[in-house]
Structures are given as C-alpha cells and as structure tokens.
Amino acid sequence: MVRELLKHLFKKPCTVKYPAERPPLFEGLRGRPVWDMGRCIGCGLCSHICPSGAVEMIGKGLKAVIRHHVDRCMFCGQCAESCPRGAITMTNEYELAGYDRSRMVYEYRREEH
Description:
Layout: H1 2-9, E1 33-35, H2 45-49, E2 55-58, E3 65-69, H3 78-82, E4 88-90, E5 105-109
Antiparallel strand pairs: 1-4, 2-3, 3-5
C-alpha cells in the first residue's frame, strides 16, 4: 500500500475543481433545445416524437405556443432531428438545475405584428 501511495503522490489529480475550473465543451454536446419561431410551422412533430413528454404544443399552425419542460427533458435531440424546417437547435447550455420548477419551463410563441 505504501508503494501505491508513493506512486500516486506526485501525479496530477484526475478530477477538476468544478465549478471554479470548467472543462472544455466537446463537439456534439446536446444541451437545452431552442426553437426559432420564425422558422417553426407548428406541425407538432417535436411534441409527438419527444419520448419524455417534455415538449408541449398548445394550438396548431402558426399560432401555436410551444412549452419546453426542462425538468422532463432527456436532451436526446429527437425534437431537433425530427423538425422538417430545422427550427430546433441544441445549444451548449447544460447547467440547468434549479430549485423552482416553474422556472424550468421555457415558452416559445410567434411575435404578433
């Protein structure tokens, strides 16, 4: 055991002092999905294909309101892959924990002119 201790005594630690030191983000990270309502046609594929029921669509077509429940989301990216217009993108935002569930709901609606 002493031999093992001496062997590892002068090595760098394997862990990172998170959150003071943040590791670099890797390519292909699937963070929080974001909807571009200018491109969204309100087809509802994202809400139908979501395996955890995190995407809720209220209404249809161009008047649809989309609610994304982050506390239910698995960040699988199925919504972004299934969108025919490419209106959903996966961001690099991954620190989404919180104490209030009402702040974990993002609502997207088309701007009225």
